[in-house]
Specification:
The chain is mostly helical. Helix content is 63%, strand content 4%. A two-stranded parallel ribbon has the order 1-2. A two-stranded antiparallel ribbon has the order 3-4.
Length: 365
């Protein structure tokens, strides 16, 4: 089968990454502190997160909140007078990684209008202040994980480094922990499906070991780690649904269901297109790969839905600002393989069959 000529250029094109510094500078405005503590609920809570960590309060038995020891990382705009440098440097690093990922993912789209439009959607979502950079980073980095095409030592090292960062962020906010557990489960399933033993071991050991290391680094007792996940992640968060839910405007629910319908339509068209384009011998592999990716996006979509609609008020912006880039990625972003290459399930000299699936190439053993 002839190769699509638009796929001959490598995805790591320098022109795409010219957008990353501009995107990073635009995100820096969301990092600079511009709010101070007062006696209202949210600012007071954000001050307490810094204080709990500095005074070595034990999360789980002593502190039962929707955050973990590193919860202060989620609120760079709030100046508390505590952990200012740590919060600023950590969020600058996350902004730089997000800008790199956004530029990289935009490079996989077909045209410059699509790339610029994609970056604008993401930037507007982050600028609204409710779809913050950490959540965007988690979603984009997870998508990039699903685009890995080889099981080399270097790739496994990169997966291990990202898994260590995932472990840190899973101890920042309980909603992040739920998302990351799902991301890692799907990624490990993908590694098993493709036979990526190095990446599987690197992700499993780095994520599991990283949670323990970051927990101990925060001066937390190891015996309290299971208590934290039970009390903070399960019991406390479940109380939101029981105590804060009220019946809101029915038009909000209708719009939310319409967004779900749009998202499911994008996923259905994506799966159907991949199934039609794949050859008879490769349909199963392509379909499973795309199904795992759609499950990843659906999980992120659902967490945004639950976070926003549990209160039926302005918190719905959490859902809507997350829904926009997720739908865009479901509709336009190629995942199975990379531009100009594909998944390598054998050695470097293994015989592979090439096929073109829409906008991207896949190599099957």
């Amino acid at each position: 089968m002839a190769e699509n000529p638009c796929l001959r250029k490598p995805c790591f094109n320098f022109r795409y990454f010219l957008l990353a510094p501009l995107f990073f500078l635009a995100l820096c405005g969301e990092i600079i502190p511009r709010n101070t503590v007062n006696n209202s609920h949210d600012p007071g809570s954000q001050l307490s997160y810094d204080y709990f960590l500095l005074k070595h309060f034990q999360f789980g038995p002593e502190v039962i909140q929707n955050v973990g020891p590193y919860g202060f990382l989620h609120y760079p705009q709030m100046y508390t007078g505590l952990l200012f440098q740590e919060k600023l440097l950590a969020n600058l690093a996350i902004a730089a990684l997000l800008a790199f990922l956004a530029g990289n993912l935009a490079g996989h789209l077909r045209s410059w209008p699509e790339r610029i439009g994609f970056l604008l959607v993401v930037l507007i979502s982050c600028k609204l202040g409710v779809y913050n950079m950490i959540n965007a980073f988690l979603i984009f980095s997870a998508i990039r994980l699903f685009m890995l095409k080889r099981d080399s030592v270097g790739t496994a090292a990169a997966v291990a480094a990202l898994s260590l960062l995932y472990a840190l962020l899973s101890l920042a906010k309980t909603s992040d922990a739920s998302m990351l557990l799902g991301i890692m489960a799907l990624f490990l399933a993908r590694c098993l499906w493709l036979g990526f033993r190095r990446c599987f071991a690197a992700a499993l050991l780095a994520f599991g070991g990283g949670i323990i290391l970051w927990w101990l680094a925060a001066r937390q007792e190891l015996a309290n780690l299971p208590v934290f996940f039970v009390n903070n992640m399960c019991e406390f968060v479940s109380a939101y649904s029981e105590t804060l839910t009220f019946f809101g405007n029915t038009s909000y629910l209708a719009m939310g269901l319409a967004a779900w319908a749009l998202f499911l339509l994008c996923c259905g068209m994506r799966l159907g297109h991949a199934w039609r384009q794949a050859p008879a011998g490769g349909k199963r592999r392509v379909f499973v790969e795309e199904a795992l990716f759609c499950c990843l996006l659906a999980g992120c979509f659902f967490l945004g839905w639950k976070h926003g609609y549990v209160r039926a008020d302005w918190h719905m912006l959490y859902f809507w600002t997350a829904a926009l880039p997720i739908c865009a990625m479901a509709a336009f972003l190629p995942v199975y393989g990379e531009r100009g290459g594909g998944v390598e399930t054998g050695g470097a000299n293994a015989d592979c069959a090439r096929l073109t699936v829409g906008k991207w190439n896949v190599r099957l053993r």
